[in-house]
Amino acid sequence: MRVCVIGTGYVGLVTAACLSHIGHAVVGVDIDRRKIALLRKGLSPIYEPGLDRMLQVHMDAGNLSFSEDAESAIAHAEAILIAVGTPPRTDGHVDLRHIEAALRTIGRALERASDHGARLVVSKSTVPVGTARWMAEWFRASCSGSDIVVVSNPEFLREGNALQDCLYPDRIIIGAGDRRAAPLVQRLYRPILEQTFPTPDYLPPRPEGLRRVPLLWMDWDSAEMAKYASNAFLALKISFANEIANVCERVGADVTRVMEAVGLDHRIGPHYLRAGIGWGGSCLGKDLGALIRLAEHRGYDPLLLRAAQATNAHQRRIVIEKLRASLGSLRGRRIGLLGLAFKPNTDDIRDAPSVAIARALQDEGARVKVYDPVAMANMRAEHPDLELIYATDPMDLARACDALVIVTEWEEFRQLDLSELRRVMRGALLLDGRNFFDPEDARRAGFTYVGIGRPTAVP
Ligand SMILES: NC(=O)c1ccc[n+]([C@@H]2O[C@H](COP(=O)([O-])OP(=O)(O)OC[C@H]3O[C@@H](n4cnc5c(N)ncnc54)[C@H](O)[C@@H]3O)[C@@H](O)[C@H]2O)c1
Predict the structure, then answer these.
(1) Would you call 18 a catalytic residue per the annotation?
(2) Which of 4, 166, 248, 283 does the annotation list as catalytic?
(3) What global pTM score does this model have?
(4) Range 4-23 average pLDDT
(5) 429, containing H or E segment
(6) What domain range includes position 198?
(7) Which of 185, 195, 305, 339 is 20 to 30 A from residue 105's alpha carbon, by CA?
(8) Which of 35, 84, 99, 286 to mutate to test the pocket of ligand 1 (most atoms within 8 A of CB)?
(9) pLDDT(459) > 70
(10) Pocket lining for ligand 1, CB < 6 angstroms
(11) In terms of DSSP bridges, do strands 172-176 and 148-152 run parallel, antiparallel, or are they unpaired?
(12) How many domains does the chain fold into?
């Protein structure tokens, strides 16, 4: 199938690469000329494990390309996927201006198209309930000469694991307005639904036992709501773990053991129950906020959702409270943040706890040193107002610090020599915001270890 993906960000680029891997001829387009220039040289503008290799393989094979000429790519496509950003507006509602611009581009492209066969327009962006319905009406009114089938196909990939999530999804959700979508969607996703594509040798193997991926058909509105409901539930789980952590601390229990026990109950499951300094990233906070705004707008007060949001905001402040409790005033203190990305295996720092913590520390008069294996360039570019000292490696970060805060649990930090880190520091405080290190190991290395929801003293 000839496919055009509009928007080559975290979702669009991964989707374009994976669709080329399963056999489609894909063109990715973007209004960001810098991204397209990089991509045309075979370079990924984002860090995502395996993505560089997948781009290289399929660009070399000739079934994946990138273009600034969106209209021409769209005019030739049988399936057009929209994966543009949907950030929040200042009033909390979703800003749909990129979606609107994408529709206008599609409209102009279809005027030029010589082939008037049925085309599938797939909305992958996370959009408010009612958007796909509105899109279908817009096309009916604006492109009456074209046969356009709009589906809502919310994306569930996780950054850092995006290629596997795209090729081996738990389910594919399709919200459709009528039956014309079925054969087009089947053509687009059959290799994933039936798992018939070759497993890339540069990714972990296909999950054992995966033979078919469930395809869920529903109406447009339910598909759009399913995305918000999923993200709200994940946010709720993390906030729940954090709430329990805060109680654990006050009663002397260890939240890591408590959640291990809770998660083994198959009715609950082990995922998203790690206590720490809260969620971040471009999705959970944004989507939870949008759902709250939507509910309020329709006259419903979503108490539980608002509580999850408030718990997360509180969790970020806990870092400052814990530092103050150990160090007193933070003025003039040198604090090292180990990790900046909102989670490991990505360079994404959108709504990352590191940003809020760095800003709060700066407001307290502290000097903030930072280190991250891949996210420092984004931090420099997106937050030039923060006066951060960028370290070259974790040891350089620790040097002369009064405290070290674990902000992102990068697996490579496991190899760190804790005694050596402690030796080059001025103070002894290790504030483990991700409950990443074994408290005993840290104490043996000479640290005063403080976790989240863990006993602070040796029992
Ligand atoms: N990032 C995630 O983990 C994730 C997961 C699931 C769903 N989503 C949703 O997917 C959507 C995209 O998210 P993202 O993280 O990939 O965003 P992003 O900001 O990384 O990428 C969006 C891209 O779209 C481009 N763009 C904007 N307007 C355009 C236009 N008119 N024509 C062509 N390109 C245009 C931008 O330049 C950018 O490169 C959002 O709705 C998001 O909520 C994101």
Answers:
(1) no
(2) 283
(3) 0.95
(4) 98
(5) strand 429-432
(6) 2-218
(7) 185
(8) 84
(9) no
(10) 6-12, 29-32, 35, 83-86, 98, 101-102, 105, 125-126, 155, 157, 159, 282-283
(11) antiparallel
(12) 2
